[in-house]
Write a structure and sequence with these properties.
- The chain is of the alpha/beta class.
- The protein is 28% helix and 21% strand.
- Among the domains are: 74 residues, no CATH class; 66 residues, no CATH class.
- The protein has an eight-stranded mixed sheet with strand order 6-7-8-3-9-10-12-11, sandwiched between helices. A four-stranded antiparallel sheet has the order 2-1-4-5, covered by helices on one side.
- α4 packs across α6.
- The N terminus and C terminus are likely disordered.
- Keywords: ATP-binding, Cell inner membrane, Cell membrane, Membrane, Nucleotide-binding, Translocase, Transport.
């Protein structure tokens, strides 16, 4: 159900002014981050347009975090920054992403040289994307491609790499894995190709797996199987999982925490169950209205009016203001930080309980 807010829409309740905003997502007590992203900003083009703005979050070992939002919200750019594969013309202008505080040597990903990337990508950091066929060489069998990674990254012999590849194909649920080893990408279905790419991604037992829209192009049955596979691999291997999707039902199924992204900013974050049961940002609430899960799924499906701002557009206040049903003149009076709305739950909204009143800009 939607969160309860006292007062009429447009006249939000405020506690006393001066309550401090939380600058970033708090790390749960007693955890060590496998990935620590702090103040990440990505600019595009010569104009240095900010497509991703001051994004901060953490992942602990074995934790699964969902990054959700509409197309163009900055989800994939955030992940590609972590992976060091930003498109031409894009660069990390400030902030950092650090991998490895959960056990291995810490590596500041946003400052790695190409040589150091070779030691991190594939070994400590794995990735699975939406179109697996585009990441596999059509001229080589899938088994040879996996075995080659094992030989280069782990130094296995040809015989050892072949045996390990078959084991990995078995681990990800491919039937007749010895036969699959000798097949080419065009001979496999989309679901089989996604399993092959997952086998490649986990082959060196990385600390972190990033799945960027990994189930979007699959039918619902195969999607459920891939999600179950990711859940099992996470439990068995202690993987930290960053799952990028626009599908809240997928996040509800597999993620411990959720990060909601809009127009380049994190607008809400917190435990998945709490955020989906009581969204504290109007954008999250709107996403649930157009989804089909839980209590929200029993409502008539809706659309979010209006359009997101152009990528990098500089706006004076809340970036969702033009589409928000609760907007007041306060919302556009200045930048809106993240405020606490509960334990480990934050929202970039002036309707949050911890948001201080702003002087002078009443509706």
């Amino acid at each position: 159900m939607p969160p309860s807010h006292s007062g009429e829409a447009g006249s939000p309740h405020r506690p006393e002014a001066g309550t401090a905003a939380l600058p970033r997502e708090p790390r749960p007590a007693g955890t060590t981050a496998v990935l620590d992203v702090e103040g990440l900003t990505v600019t595009v083009g010569g104009s240095r347009t900010r497509a991703v703005r001051d994004v901060s979050f953490t992942l602990a070992r074995g934790e699964s975090v969902g990054l959700v939002g509409e197309s163009g919200s900055g989800k994939s750019l955030t992940c590609r920054s972590v992976l060091g594969v930003l498109p031409p013309g894009c660069e990390v202008s400030s902030g950092r992403a650090v991998l490895g505080n959960g056990g291995g040597e810490a590596a500041e990903l946003t400052a790695l040289t190409r040589k150091r990337w070779d030691a991190v990508r594939g070994r400590r950091l794995g990735a699975v994307f939406q179109d697996p066929a585009s990441y596999l060489n059509p001229a080589l069998t899938v088994g040879r491609q996996l075995a080659e990674q094992l030989r280069v990254k782990l130094g296995l012999s040809r015989t050892e790499a072949h045996a390990r590849a078959v084991e990995l194909f078995t681990d990800v649920g491919l039937h007749r894995p010895s036969d699959v080893y000798h097949q080419y990408p065009h001979e496999l279905s989309g679901g089989m190709l996604q399993r092959v790419l997952i086998a490649v991604a986990i082959s060196c037992e990385p600390e972190l797996l990033i799945a960027d829209e990994a189930t979007t192009a699959l039918d619902v049955v195969i999607q459920a199987e891939i999600l179950e596979l990711l859940r099992r691999l996470r439990a068995e291997h202690g993987l930290a999982l960053l799952l990028v999707t626009h599908d809240l039902a997928v996040v509800a199924e597999i993620c411990d925490r959720i990060l909601v992204m809009y127009a380049g900013e994190i607008v809400e974050n917190g435990p998945t169950a709490g955020v989906l049961a009581a969204p504290a940002h109007p954008y999250t609430e709107a996403l649930l209205r157009v989804a089909s899960i839980g209590e929200w799924g029993r409502r008539e499906l809706d659309t979010i009016p209006g359009r997101p701002p152009e990528a990098g557009a500089e706006l004076p206040g809340c970036r969702f203001a033009d589409r928000c049903a609760y907007v007041t003149t306060e919302c556009t009076a200045g930048p809106v930080p993240l405020y606490s709305v509960g334990e480990h739950h934050q929202s970039r909204c002036l309707r949050a309980p911890a948001a201080p009143a702003r002087e002078g800009a009443r509706a």
